[in-house]
Design goal:
245 residues, alpha/beta, 6-stranded mixed beta sheet, globular
Length: 245
Amino acid sequence: MSFDIRNIAKSFDGSQAILQDVSLTVPQGDFLALLGPSGSGKTTLLNIIAGLTRPDRGRLILDGEDFTDRPAGERRFGMVFQSYALFRHMSVADNIAFGLRVLPRSERPSKSERSSRVRELLELIEMSDLADRYPAQLSGGQQQRVAMARALAIRPKLLLLDEPFSALDAQVRRSLRGSVRELQRKVGVTAILVTHDQAEAFEIADRVAVMNGGRIEQIGTEADLTERPASDFVRDFLAVGEEAG
C-alpha cells in the first residue's frame, strides 16, 4: 500500500507554473519531508494533497484508489497547521474529540468509544492531566501536541503537517520534533511534512524531497542528499542550510 502523486501540475491565473509534473511515491508508514525555499511549490503540493487546491492536471492515488476529485472533507486526512487552529472555547479533550463527533453518522463512534480514543491520545501526547484545560492555558508546545492528537483522532489515512513548528522557539521546536516523530511511529500513519528547515527535515523524516521551481530535484535520505547531490541546486541549497545552522 502506498500514496502516489502522478504528474501533478498547477499554475495560478495563467502565470508561471507553481508545480511542474511532480511525481513521487510515499510507502505506507513512511515520513516524507518536502524541503525547499519559499516559492518552490511545497505548500501548494501539500494543499493539493489535502484537497484545498485543485491541480490543473495529474492524479493522486492512495492504496490504488484515485481521490484526485474527492472533496477535502471526504478524504479523511489529518492536517496540522503552523497556527494550531484549536477551538478556543473547547477544552483539550473536546478539541481532540471534535473530528470524531463530526464524522458521518455511519462512521461516527459512540460516546464511550470517543472518550476511550481521547484518553488514548492524551496518554500518547503525555497530557492526560490537562484534559480539562483550555488552549489559552497551554504553552505553544502543548497546543501543538493537542493539534497533533486532534488530527490523529480520526485515524487518518494520511497525516499532513504544514510547517507545524515554525511558530515555536528553538528549544521547544527541537523537543517537539522528536515527540512528533515518535508519535508517528507508534500510530503507524503515513506522514508528509512541509518545511524550509533542513535540520528539521533530516531529523524527523525517513526521506526528504528537495523542491525547486515547482519540481522535485531529488528524493532520498540525508546521506543520499548530502553525499550524492543530484544537482548543483541540491548541493548549494543544503550547503547554505548547514552554514545557517
